[in-house]
Specification:
heterodimer, A: mainly alpha, about 75% helix, about 0% strand, B: alpha+beta, Rossmann fold, OB fold (Dihydrolipoamide Acetyltransferase, E2P), six-stranded mixed beta sheet, five-stranded antiparallel beta sheet, 8 helices, elongated, binds adenosine-5'-diphosphate, binds magnesium ion, nucleotide-binding (chain B), P-loop_NTPase (chain B), EC 7.6.2.11 (chain B), translocase (chain B), ABC-type putrescine transporter activity (chain B)
Chain lengths: ~260, ~375
């Protein structure tokens, strides 16, 4: 009896948590369809598709989104390549300065964004670097890098070193061994790191606001629009970004299942 | 090339590691030759340098001193991917993201073998290891024994000059182990490739090998065929490591022709082949199954010792007796459990133990 009651309580609790987590997303999606008349988009006034049709009607917003996507893609690629190499090094080798490297990775993850943003700004100012696209990409690469290192390192540490030796033994050179054996083995870590890097970059506000110069990004534009009212196009863009994320997650789950049942 | 070029030759091979600022010699000077088509075992306790020796043959470690030759050619500085030998790893090291077929074809693809030939050879080898029909399986969907055979096929399909196996059955349970021992022997005969087999299990080495190198502390203690290793251990270490043996120590009384007369206690008289002067102390060994136990005085011409039965253990097809000699030495005797067994010794009885002189050996 008690087990049954416990089961039911757990069931209800689980659904409450899911509801709690999903409600902001549901509201975001819903208000992308709101046929609002006033300036603010906070009360339901009827259903419409017009914000989807006029998705790119606000030039400033469209530019900011394009900027954010370019910055996210470039910084994700950079952080993934550099982070994977660093993750391999710290996961596999003992070298002079490994302790310092481990500490810096931890520091990069745990430093408050405000501190990181402020210190990056003073660095760029003292180096006389003009703020804009480049400085934002450098900043985003920097804070995503550590997350890629951590996810890749976890895979590298769990990797049987004799796998690579077996590849060498069977005639593969150093590069072929990396391409055919090492990389596929650590790929889940690389992919997880890349997704984290993209997600961190596309919605970063704090660090970006220090180093953006006059450059606008999607989050910066939205925060700027709060006082005058956020247009429903923002909800639509948010919905689309969320939708792409869900599709990626499903694709990942399906391919993982195919791999195990094949 | 001439028939008598050895498949593998180690010449004074030494391997030193730097551990915690100190040099450690894992292998202290090993020289041996392994013939074409031979089933050769490296046998010894954990940490004696077997894996290190094998990894130098494979090319994963470079010797600190000495030469490694394959078919007469010096390959000491040749990387593993350029050596015509393959290895079966203790952890199998199957590529987890590839299926059985892709795993087995890996080596042939690296050598740019034509697709049709790859298909033929992979198919053939999978048949030999009895895995036809499992080509699409991933390693993690297979049992330990099956993974073991994939690892074997992946190495053998390349038709290497020699196959190195590092404790390949270590991860299997006893029953599967024995099955795979027979299987490995069959496969080796079928493909006719030189096998170098590393194990710490003496019974495995004795049943499978053509020749065995018994290693201890970085050195080869004895290199011989299984029969000789078992019957004529060359050192105290080998005698103690292989099977159960009795180690005795006594003083030489006299030399009678080829035999030494060795005295332990006043009723004891041991005859053993060897050379030593009267008064010398010698160590000798005799296997438990070579000893006869009796309650009456044995005939002359045999080695004879007297003692008290301290323990009798019934082990199914035979009994094991522990007999304590006057000086405290304990001797183990195995006696067949035949119906008409003449031995009626009980615990506490005083008995005679006897064996033929040629069944005991002096040790260095
Ligand atoms: N990479 C290494 N660094 C330091 N010492 C090692 C290394 N590899 C092996 N050793 C040492 O060398 C000795 C022999 O090891 P190994 O060849 O693995 O023995 P076995 O395979 O017979 O158990 C051991 O004492 C081991 O600790
Ligand atoms: Mg070993």
């Amino acid at each position: 009896m008690r087990g049954k009651l416990g089961d039911r309580a757990l069931y209800v609790y689980t659904w409450l948590i899911i509801l709690w987590l999903a409600s902001p997303i549901a509201v975001m999606i819903l208000f992308g369809f709101n046929d609002k008349q006033s300036k603010s988009n906070t009360s339901w006034q009827g259903f419409t598709f017009k914000w989807y049709q006029q998705l790119f009607a606000i030039d400033g917003l469209t530019d900011a989104l394009v900027n954010s996507l370019i910055i996210a893609v470039v910084s994700t690629v950079l952080a993934t390549v550099l982070g994977t190499l660093l993750g391999l090094a710290v996961g596999r080798y003992r070298f002079r300065g490994k302790g310092v490297t481990d500490f810096l990775i931890f520091a990069a993850i745990s430093t408050p964004e405000l501190v990181m943003g402020a210190s990056l700004l003073s660095l760029f100012v003292s180096a006389n670097a003009p703020r804009g696209h480049i400085t934002i990409i450098i900043a985003h690469t920097l804070f995503s890098l550590a997350f890629v290192v951590v996810t890749v390192r976890a895979r590298v540490v769990g990797l049987d070193p004799s796998l690579e030796e077996a590849a060498r033994d069977l005639g593969a050179g150093t590069f072929t061994t990396f391409r055919l054996v090492t990389l596929p083995s650590i790929m889940p870590g690389v992919a997880a790191g890349a997704m984290l890097a993209f997600a961190l970059s596309i919605d970063d506000y704090v660090v970006t606001s220090f180093v953006n110069g006059s450059e606008q990004t999607f989050p910066l534009w939205i925060v700027g629009a709060v006082k005058v009212g956020i247009p429903p196009q923002v909800n639509v863009m948010g919905t689309l970004i969320f939708g792409i994320g869900v599709l990626l997650a499903i694709a990942n789950a399906v391919s993982a299942r195919r791999k195990t049942t094949h | 090339m001439p028939e008598d070029v050895p498949a593998i030759e180690l010449d004074g091979v030494v391997k030193e590691y730097l551990a915690h600022g100190e040099t450690v010699q894992a292998v202290k000077g090993v020289s041996l030759t392994i013939g074409e088509g031979e089933f050769f075992s490296l046998l010894g306790p954990s940490g004696c340098g077997k894996t290190t020796t094998m990894r130098m043959i494979a090319g994963f470690e470079e010797p600190t001193k000495g030469l490694v030759k394959l078919l007469g050619q010096d390959v000491t500085n040749v990387p593993p991917n350029k050596r015509d030998i393959n290895m079966v790893f203790q952890s199998y090291a199957l590529f987890p993201h590839m299926n059985v077929w892709e795993n087995v074809a890996f080596g042939l693809r690296r050598k740019k073998v034509a697709d049709a030939e790859i298909k033929q050879r992979v198919g053939d080898i999978l048949e030999i290891v009895d895995l036809t029909g499992r080509e699409k399986r991933r390693p993690r969907e297979m049992s330990g024994g099956q993974q073991q055979r994939v690892a074997l096929a992946r190495a053998l399909v390349n038709r290497p000059r020699a196959l190195l196996l590092d404790e390949p059955l270590g991860a299997l349970d006893l029953k599967l182990r024995q099955q795979m021992q027979t299987e490995l022997k069959r496969i080796q005969r079928e493909v006719g490739i030189t096998f170098v087999y590393v194990t710490h299990d003496q019974s495995e080495a004795l049943t499978m090998s053509d020749r065995i190198a018994v290693m201890n502390d970085g050195l080869v203690e004895q290199l011989a065929d299984p029969r000789e290793i078992y019957e004529r251990p060359a050192s105290k270490f080998v005698a103690g490591f292989i099977g159960t043996s009795n180690l005795l120590s006594g003083t030489v009384d006299a030399a009678e022709g080829d035999l030494l007369v060795v005295r332990l206690g006043e009723h004891d008289r041991i005859l053993v082949p060897g050379k030593a002067a009267a008064g010398d102390t010698v160590d000798l060994t005799v296997r438990p199954e070579k000893i006869t136990i009796s309650t009456e005085q044995p005939e002359s011409g045999l080695s004879v010792v007297r003692g008290d039965v301290a323990e009798i253990t019934y082990l199914g097809t035979y009994n094991s007796y522990a007999v304590a000699l006057a000086d405290g030495t304990e001797i183990t005797v195995f006696q067949q459990n035949a119906i008409d067994s003449s031995t009626t010794a009980e615990r506490g009885d005083t008995v005679w133990l006897s064996w033929r002189p040629q069944h005991s050996y002096t040790l260095s």
